[in-house]
Amino acid sequence: MKMIKRRLLLLGLLLAMLVSCSSPLPPLRISIQSDWPSYGIAFIAQDQGLFAKYGVQVTLIPVPGYMESLKPYKEGQADAAFMVFADAIMFEAEGVSTRAVYITEYSETGDILVGQPTLNSLSDLKGKKIAFEGFNSFSHLFVLKLLEKAGVREGEFEGSNLDSSKVLEQLQSSNISAGHVYGPAVSEALAKGYKMLGKAGDIRHLMMGGLAVNAKVVNTRRKEVQSVIKALVEAADWLKSFPSEGFGIIAKYAGISKEELETSIKRLHVLALPENQEMLKKGGPLFEGGKEIIDFFYQKGVLVKIPDLNTVIDGQFIQTIGDKP
User: Fold this and answer.
1) Among the listed residues 298, 278, 233, the one whose alpha carbon sits nearest the alpha carbon of residue 86
2) Residue range(s) defining the domain that contains residue 81
């Protein structure tokens, strides 16, 4: 009788293990700035069933505004997020181990330093008040690197921590002389006669954005991460073939018009697959930009540790994709 009970107990444990092993994994949660046009390929991948095509379940978390979109990832409520590469480096340094696995674009005029109409060049900003989105942030890096090219060093201007969405009103009130704006705010500022003094294209190696994934997820759910990237590559191709329909899909989530999205994406250089593979290869442009980003944050004294770019940049997934997904 005891032998029978023991066998039944072992059988029950075996069945429980089989049920546990066969239970589906939860969807991968991806936080996304909803109004950044190139990130919108994730909405297309979802709408066109491309995640399902490659056998992965994904829950997108659309959030308006860039800094707000990083919060779910930082707080552990998202497994991955679309972000500027500089922030992937900072997350890694701050203990949220992060891997950059796919680059969507680098900004040309998607990010600009916009100033009062009376200003003629970046050098005119010496002694002036300039706004950026967070001290020691990628926005701060953007402004400093542009000014350095014009011979204006930190300490030769007054910095102001200001959300990009507030820059225009502060320019109108003459509370600042210039500020970093991106996305739809670029069109609005230029339409009101404010002047583009510097642009991301001038320092493009520092202004790359894409998908970053928590390192634990990369290590434990590699097949699903690979499937997500395959879906994004196909969605990017699909958008090129059907731009009007594609931007219509993105507009449903973005909270801005299809026309504004079409205008905004022209300010970016969206990477084709071969460019993405080149960007993420060992010693490629992403490594070059990463070294400069780390140097900036190190000099600012905000790095808890020096991140290893060979760890942060994970090109294994994009390199295995052929010309056609």
Assistant:
1) 298
2) 28-108+206-319
